[in-house]
Amino acid sequence: MNTLTGKQFKLMLDSGANHLSNRHHEIDALNVFPVPDGDTGTNMHLTFSAGVKDVLVAHNEHLGDIAKILSKGLLMGARGNSGVILSQIFRGFFQSVEGHNEVNAKQMAAAFIRGSEVAYKAVMRPVEGTILTVLRESAANSAKYVDKNPNITINEYLDVLIKEAHISLQNTPELLPVLKEVGVVDSGGAGLVVIFEGFRYALAGNPVAVMANIDTHASAQLDMANDEFGYCTEFILRLEHEKMDYFSEDKLKRDLARMGDSIVVVQDEDLVKVHIHTLIPGDALNLAQRFGEFVKLKIENMQEQHAAILENSHAHGIEKPRKKYGIIAVGAGEGIKAMFEELRADVVINGGQTMNPSTEDFVAAIRSLNAEHIFVLPNNSNIILAAQQAESICEDLDVHVLISKTIPQGLSACIMFNPEVNIDSNLEEMNAAIAHVKTGQVTYAIKDTTIDGKEIKANDYMGIVEKLIVVCIPNKVEAACRMLDHLVDDDAEIVTVIAGEDASDEEIAQVSAYLKENFKAEVEVHIGKQPVYSFIFGVE
How far apart are CA 269 and CA 247, in angstroms? Predict the structure, then answer.
């Protein structure tokens, strides 16, 4: 075809989203760092799916309008650095095709060039050997091909774009030494290639459909006081007779726990009643339907219910009193949430490693506060870009995203917050506190690999100082103690210990005793109950 219509563009986007959905776990596995947080594929999948979902429900087949809807959906649904970059790629794409009802190969090539330019500008310090490089090189080289072959079809253009993207992707290890050391290509670049391939399949008449698998990613959910958001999903399932022998009530609970919370599963002979709060009810339904058929089903949007309550309250003149400051923090684990709330955090967004909140999560949290100045603490380097996106969206409010990359940094910033001083003084003190904190963490390795010259064995425990793995051994407590030898020095005054959900009382006591016996610093122990990390240490 010589031109691409809006209807065909919709098919492309749906196919690209489905292809990414089917393969996002493969992309997650390309994670360089051997910690259980390889979520590039998941973040790109959730981001792209959010945008495409908005496109598919829109009764509009104008290509420029579709690109605009996609851009906005990606922006609000962006999760993690890879998701934010992906949203910027298609933001630039929209800027280039705005007003066009259809485009030819030359115009499409120009759109991806513009997408590359916008994506690069969105990243403060662009790194080559990443998704940015794969897009830039493939877009530039395919555009040159179009210039030499002006009568090229859209299908031929995509063939060239994908070919050049593959070449660029395979070269990423030459640009990023850590990729070469671990023996993988860039995960974000791989995700982009998968999307492009999905586009091509659609235009070739073979659009990709979603495979019958379950996305077990625990999507980050906004946790605001006692309010819950997402979908309240309830159903009664009648088990098929031949499947009753291997159906497990406990296993269903565990699988559902990866998709949401407030879970209740009750079995009575061949009937199973289920209740769950989740952002993706379809995943829960797909999981359950493997074992039988639904007798009763109800799904309610709790976000809409919450909004209706707020609207009704405002209509009756009931509104939160305006205050000078508001604080939003990101953290996972009941204990960590309580720690931030004790330090005056108004909203704690449930998220962190493996659960990167979306831009929309931040926007909702920001809009929920009636405050003159709002501080946002991402507490994870992979969440900062999404928070900054939200800051730019809420330009009518005074929002400040502080560059906190760890939980201890965020907690230290909250400690230094003073509601009685002006905004500039708070920013100065809170940023200084963030800079003053050193962080160490203990988690398990998800695969055998070699990184920074250190041999890593799957399931061993790693001690990580900032982003450097300093020890990897089978014993959790020993890994923590040896890591502390690298983290704590004579200048340390306070060591904060945050114990995760898998740390036993005995292990916590052993680590605490080691600190008190070997270092002069004051030791504070908290039960964070966070996933992924057995221990998080903050040193000031």
Answer: 11
